[in-house]
Structures are given as C-alpha cells and as structure tokens.
C-alpha cells in the first residue's frame, strides 16, 4: 500500500467534505429551519448532529492514534502495509442516505438549544483540524496497527484511517439529507 497516496486522498476527501458541510451554514435561515414532510431533521439539526457524531468518532480516532503509535513497537509495519488494501467499497455505503437501516444512539440526537449555530460551525472547523492532525501523526502507515470495532452496518474492525474515512462518509450521508430538504422546500415553493 502506498501510504502517501492514501493519506493525500483522505486529507482531500476530509477537506472537501467539511467545505461542503460548511457551505450549508450560509443558506437562508428559512431553508435551514424547514422541517421535511416526513418530520425528519431540519438542516440546522443535521449540522448539529454531524458535529455531535464527529465528537464521538474523534474520541475513538484519538485513542486509536495513540494505540497505533504504541503498537509500532513489536509489530512489523512493513508486513502490514504489504498486505493491506483500503476497503473503500465497503466504507462507501456509509455515505449513502437510505442505503441501510441506521439505529442512532440517543446521545447523538441533535439538540439545537444546547449550542448556537456559530458554535457548531466552529466545532466542525476544529474537528477537521483534529482529523487532519491525527493523520499527520500517522504518516507511514501506523494507522493500520490498531483497530476498533464499528457496529454500524456490521462493518466490524476498522483501523484509524478507515475510521477517519467513516467520519467523512457519515457527513456525506447527511449532505444528501440536507440536499433532499432543500429540494423539498423548492418543490413546495413551486406548488
């Protein structure tokens, strides 16, 4: 595996994803506050949920980064790299809205009365920096050396790089949700 290419792709994907999410903060208040017909989340609630979920995923990514670096002692990184193939196909399903049933824990339910929108926007900006920082700490493939179980969509064990990609894919999933809200709003305006 070419870690330089993988890390460049992960950095690019993270940066692009977070920029796309950030653009939703600049949408009109009425659009962001629109509650879809299916009583799903408003765009503001989706943004809060992304920040909340990122918070918990980044805790796992941070712990994984520390443990992966510890595991460089006594593990053959070259052997791990020689046989590793990034499972982008398996992880891409996370980015598909309605692609599978996703049971969300109650603690990831968005509550807009707990944080202001500017605070959520800043949180997401900081989270991008955190995720990129963890990748910077694992420049030679060390992220392969520790895995944590991910129960969502029965993914099983993911290494640190895969968790970072999961974080970005989760945001992509919700980008689609926000686009659906915007399309429904536009459709209602034409009716």
From TrEMBL:
Residues 28-178 form the DinB-like domain. It comes from the Bacteria. InterPro entries: DinB-like (IPR024775), DinB/YfiT-like (IPR034660). This is DinB family protein.
